[in-house]
Write a structure and sequence with these properties.
The chain contains seven helices and 29 strands. By secondary structure, it is of the alpha+beta class.
Length: 426
């Protein structure tokens, strides 16, 4: 006992039930099929975890070694009792009691039989599943348990070792019977371990106790996506994988879809603005999880390009955004007054440029401005005539390039240069 406590101190609890009127080891396992249908008096729980057959047989073999040392007959491991012990271990997650099952009946109803033989169960809890030898050692050392486990009247057993996902530790159940095993099994008849989910019926008189310690583990069972185009919220529906309790939450639709820039100067390098998507509550969505991004081909030369945002997962819809790669601008190099006119000269900028535009107005805000297009990038000056004499005119210039977008010509302009002014002569 000291050896066990030094390994898993305060994490092992042995509970022994009283003798009960039971069934022989030759019976079939009785599940809660009928009780689960009664939703008024029972809750259906699904207990998840792992059945450790390897450790169960290690514990069983160790018990037999102790019996051999005491010159007691060797026990047989019965197939149905193994499965009943595993089921019983699942049940103890729902309602931990040495005698009563979660459905309100005694543990002796685990096996269905007409006979009325007596058998015994031993329950143990450990933090880890790989302590089979220590469990057997503890049983041998505990004088309140060992007389029953090491009795000459016992002929067969069923050992269960279940690692509970709900509780995070391992429950051991040892069922004992005076009957010989109908179908004797060994470790080679089983896999090392199996992930197992058992449906358990919990009687309503135990509901409050369950609710006190149970922590819901929700899983999504249905999703209505939030629509980015229709601007409608979605909803995600979840339920606890163990007890089936349902809940739901709102998925807020994408309220803001923006590019890091919508206009950028030509540089000869690839241009691809990043995308930021936020829902109507300001939460930033995750690229690759909530949406994908696809760019137009090219994206190096001056032109207009598309960014396609396709929503997925909890979101639906497709949104197209656009950005321009613009030509570098120019500036006015000289502005000369003349009779009822003026001459404007500018610095040529031929890279990714078709031509220039000149704009002039008597307003510094360029209200009612006149615009002249110079369709070649080799042009560098323009004489304006037929204007009023002795009048101030504000002048600015910019570059442009004729591109194709959507099958049509599409002009891309640089920003206007800084404005300069000139006063015409009479």
């Amino acid at each position: 006992m000291k050896r066990l406590l030094s390994i898993i101190l305060a994490t092992v609890i042995f509970v022994t039930s009283a003798f009960g009127a039971g069934v022989t080891a030759n019976a079939a396992v009785v599940y809660d099929t009928q009780q689960i249908k009664d939703t008024v008096n029972y809750r259906q729980l699904t207990i998840y975890g792992k059945n450790h057959y390897k450790y169960a047989f290690q514990c069983f073999d160790a018990i037999n070694r102790f019996r051999y040392y005491d010159e007691i007959n060797r026990l047989e491991m019965d197939k149905d009792m193994v499965e009943a012990a595993m089921l019983r271990a699942h049940e103890l997650v729902a309602y931990f009691d040495s005698v009563t099952r979660p459905n309100g009946k005694e543990f002796t109803t685990l096996l269905d039989s007409k006979s009325n033989e007596l058998y015994y169960d031993v329950i143990c809890v450990s933090q880890e599943p790989n302590v089979a030898l220590d469990v057997a050692d503890y049983i041998f050392s505990d004088t309140s348990i060992s007389p029953y486990v090491f009795s000459e009247d016992i002929a067969s057993a069923g050992v269960g070792a279940f690692e509970s996902e709900e509780l995070g530790f391992t429950i051991w159940v040892i069922l004992l019977s005076p009957d010989k095993a109908k179908q004797n099994v060994t470790a080679v008849d089983y896999p090392t371990s199996v992930n197992k989910a058992e449906k358990i019926a919990l009687h309503k008189k135990y509901w409050s106790q369950w609710d006190e310690y149970h922590q819901h583990k929700y899983v999504t069972y249905s999703t209505t996506p939030a629509d980015a185009i229709k601007k409608t919220n979605g909803r995600v529906y979840r339920k606890c994988k163990t007890c089936g309790t349902k809940t739901s939450s709102v998925i807020y639709y994408p309220g803001s879809i923006t590019l890091s820039y919508t206009s950028i100067y030509y540089s000869g390098s690839l241009r691809a603005p990043s995308v930021t998507v936020k829902d109507t509550k300001g939460r930033t969505l995750v690229k690759g999880t909530d949406y994908d991004v696809a760019y137009s081909a090219g994206r190096k030369n001056v032109g207009r390009y598309q960014v396609k945002v396709t929503f997925k997962g909890k979101y639906s819809g497709t949104k197209n955004l656009y950005y321009n790669i613009i030509p570098k601008g120019t500036s006015i190099s000289r502005l000369t007054a003349s009779s009822k006119g003026f001459t404007v000269q500018w610095n040529t900028q031929k890279t990714q440029t078709t031509g220039y535009q000149i704009q002039y107005s008597t307003s510094s805000k360029f209200e009612n401005a006149n615009t002249i297009t110079m369709p070649k990038n080799t042009y560098y000056a323009k004489k304006i005539t037929g204007r009023a004499g002795n009048k101030r005119y504000y002048v600015r210039v910019r570059t442009y390039k004729v591109t194709k977008f959507g099958g049509k010509n599409y002009n891309i302009y640089s920003p206007w240069s800084s404005a300069k002014y000139v006063t015409t002569k009479y």
